[in-house]
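[[Per-residue structure]]
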Amino acid sequence: MNASGPFRARFDGVCAAGCPNRVHVGDLVRFDDQDQLRHDQCTPKPSKFDIGPREVLCSDCWTVKPCRCDDD
């Protein structure tokens, strides 16, 4: 899994989510679990019901803390 947070696209392309909008330079994008490029809003995020009551999600990689983002 690519744990990168959202970033601005540097090239035009196609959203792997199959949405009708192309990825344009400057769009906010991220890689999904299969390392496919998607618009940030098209990338599935965990539901609040998928984590335990004491678990905290990282806002960059969307995994339960502690995560490798804490090492930075």
Remarks:
- The two ends are 18 Å apart (CA to CA).
- The chain has no helices and three strands.
- The chain has a mean pLDDT of 83.
